[in-house]
Design a protein that fits this description.
single chain, about 600 residues, alpha+beta, Arc Repressor Mutant, subunit A, Alpha-D-Glucose-1,6-Bisphosphate, Chain A, domain 4, 9-stranded antiparallel beta sheet, 8-stranded antiparallel beta sheet, 14 helices, about 25% strand, HD, lipid binding, transcription regulation
């Protein structure tokens, strides 16, 4: 069809075809021949307008329309049939053109990938990365590109599909992954026989307070010693990434994964960030407990600087090593699934928005309104939180040693040498942690531990004294998301403050704190350098137990208590038994105080 042909001209052509079709030919009875009729411009315009409102008129409407326009009902019927066929043809032609254009774009992307490989840049220094440093040959590079492109196509389909791939749970609150349907839909990924790995997949959506471009930049802002990056307008490829996915407990092994990350903006404006495992790239890959299937998110722009994020998390995992106390949590998806990714992302976006806020209310007592002071205090709290995470998870980087107890009541310790570490003086740092279950909902445990008024019930360092909040910064919608400065009313501790960050979402809650010198804290609040402020964080990680573990069947909490203590200022010194005994007693006393206080609270 010529592109300059108008719809009215097409309609006339079809009318002529209809008139010719109604004629019977030269050998028919002349009395049966119908008079040739061409629709007028007015008739076509009226039927066009009617078609927009009702493309499938019934007999009554066709008869009424034919009477108004001076046509036979059959003529009206055939005109609408022809019009519908015309629209269908145009729609199919448009879809075909879109698919052809998308295919051409993919081919062009592939060519650009190849051209860009020769000038891949190091994400750390921005310099050109030599081919030898990337440790991939040309064939492997092409395979990585193909893996990334196929993973993105699969992720988009998984994010957008409904039943039967994603079934609604019996309670109607969650979606359940149908692995059999997945294998039918994506037959190339059928599991191998006798595969010991378990498939886990989940999907979650949320609207977060961050611009879609900034969100993409954060997700792609990764720096790994073994990683390389290829950049092009509209997409980015990060490969040879190695990550540990952690649960804040020494009783749950981390999940190591080796994968490629690929980001691209699509024609409708949606950004897609996808990860996929590279374990199968070579014949004999190193054994890993977690193989990352196409996972990641679709990011759509929303009004007022918000973004809609749809996250799909899909892995094959070996669950060996997970303590029985945490298996329900892991199986629920709250430990590693899409729900935790989205909840954490939402909370972090709120935290970042708080650090950038300029319209701070001045009426509330204790609110820090100084912009530079807020930023410095939040950065210091962030460093404290990251240090706490490093000292509480079962990372493969550090080895935990069991001290005492049996089963879940074990106290686990590890030591690390602090040398040239910003924010920590040199010496031996002892980290200790213990996990236990409480028959109390996580929200109640979180509120008890973060409240300065109940702190003297469990914190033996305050020795039963009164604790006061001097200042705070709210970090989001939930009042529990907050950075605070606390002090003891005891005059003997007047030179020491407590920096505390509390944060909570649907999947986890934390109360993390560290003692800081009051002089150093004043420097921080003036927006000065933070690196010299020494921090040894302690605190709590509060997780839902994944289901009813108590006698009543109600949801309880999995609580991890962790301390970090500088036990010797000499990095070459050996750990003394006295230091180990001290931290062991500190944890035991803290646990017993918490149990006693919450037991009385629920009695």
């Amino acid at each position: 069809m010529a592109p300059n042909t108008s719809e009215n001209d097409i309609a006339r052509i079809r009318d002529d075809d209809f008139d010719r079709a109604t004629k019977s030919g030269d050998d028919q009875d002349p009395r049966m021949k119908k008079k040739r009729h061409r629709h007028t411009q007015h008739q076509i315009q009226e039927m066009e307008a009617f078609f927009k409102e009702c493309p499938h008129p019934d007999y009554k409407k066709r008869k009424e329309l034919s009477r108004e326009l001076g046509l036979e009902p059959l003529q009206v019927k055939y005109w609408f049939q022809n019009k519908r066929n015309q629209m269908k043809t145009q729609h199919e032609l448009h879809e075909s053109t879109q698919l052809r254009n998308e295919n051409e774009k993919l081919r062009a992307d592939n060519m650009r990938y190849r051209e860009a490989l020769g000038s891949a840049s190091c994400p750390n220094c921005g310099g050109v990365t030599a081919i030898g440093e990337m440790s991939f040959n040309e064939a492997e590079k092409q395979m990585i590109i193909e893996i990334a492109v196929a993973a993105m196509e699969e992720l988009i389909r998984m994010a957008q599909m409904g039943e039967p791939l994603w079934m609604t749970s019996l309670d109607g609150n969650t979606t359940v992954f149908n692995e059999d349907e997945y294998i039918r839909t994506f037959p190339r990924v059928a599991p191998k026989p006798n595969n010991p790995f378990k498939c886990e997949a989940s999907r979650e959506s949320a609207v977060v307070i961050m611009n879609h471009i900034n969100l993409v930049e954060i997700l792609m802002d990764v720096s790994y010693d073994s990683g390389s990056a290829v950049n092009w307008s509209g997409w980015k490829l990060q490969w040879s990434l190695a990550s540990e996915f952690q649960v804040p407990s020494p009783l749950v092994p981390t999940r190591e994964s080796y994968y490629v990350r690929y980001c691209k903006q699509h024609a409708d404006g949606t950004w897609v960030v996808v990860d996929d495992s590279l374990d199968t790239l070579r014949p004999n890959p190193a054994p890993r407990s977690c193989q990352r299937r196409p996972s990641g998110c679709l990011i759509q722009e929303m009004p007022n600087g918000y973004s809609k994020v749809t996250w799909v998390e899909h892995v094959n995992v070996d669950e060996l090593g997970v303590h029985n106390m945490y298996k329900q949590l892991v199986n629920s998806g709250n430990a590693f699934g899409a729900k935790r990714w989205v909840a954490t992302l939402d909370r972090q976006c709120e935290r970042l928005a708080s650090s950038l806020a300029s319209n701070i209310p001045t009426g509330d007592v204790g609110v820090i309104t100084n912009q530079e002071g807020r930023k410095s205090m939040l950065k210091l709290a962030e460093r404290m939180v990251i240090s706490f995470y490093a000292g509480v998870s079962a990372s493969t980087t550090h080895t935990w040693t069991t001290l005492s107890g049996t089963g879940a009541d074990d106290v686990r310790v590890m030591t690390r040498k602090s040398v040239d570490d910003p924010g920590k003086p040199p010496g031996i740092v002892l980290s200790a942690a213990r996990c236990f279950w409480l028959p109390i909902p996580p929200k109640r445990v979180f509120e008890f531990l973060r409240d300065e008024n109940s702190r003297n019930e469990w914190d033996i360092l305050f020795n039963g004294g009164i604790v006061q909040e001097m200042a705070h910064i709210t970090n989001g919608r939930d009042i529990g998301n907050c950075v605070s400065l606390l002090r003891s009313a005891n005059s003997s501790q007047s030179n020491m403050l407590i920096l505390q960050e509390s944060c909570t979402d649907q999947t986890a809650s934390f109360v993390i704190y560290a003692p800081v010198d009051i002089v150093a804290m004043n420097v921080v609040l003036n927006g000065s350098d933070l690196d010299y402020v020494a921090l040894f964080p302690s605190g709590f990680a509060i997780l839902p137990d994944g289901g009813g573990m108590g006698d009543s069947g109600s949801s309880g909490s999995l609580l991890t208590v962790a301390f970090q203590i500088l036990v010797d200022s000499d990095p070459t010194a050996k750990l003394s038994l006295g230091s180990v005994a001290t931290v062991n007693n500190l944890i035991a006393c803290t646990v017993e105080r918490i149990k006693a206080a919450l037991s009385c609270d629920t009695a």
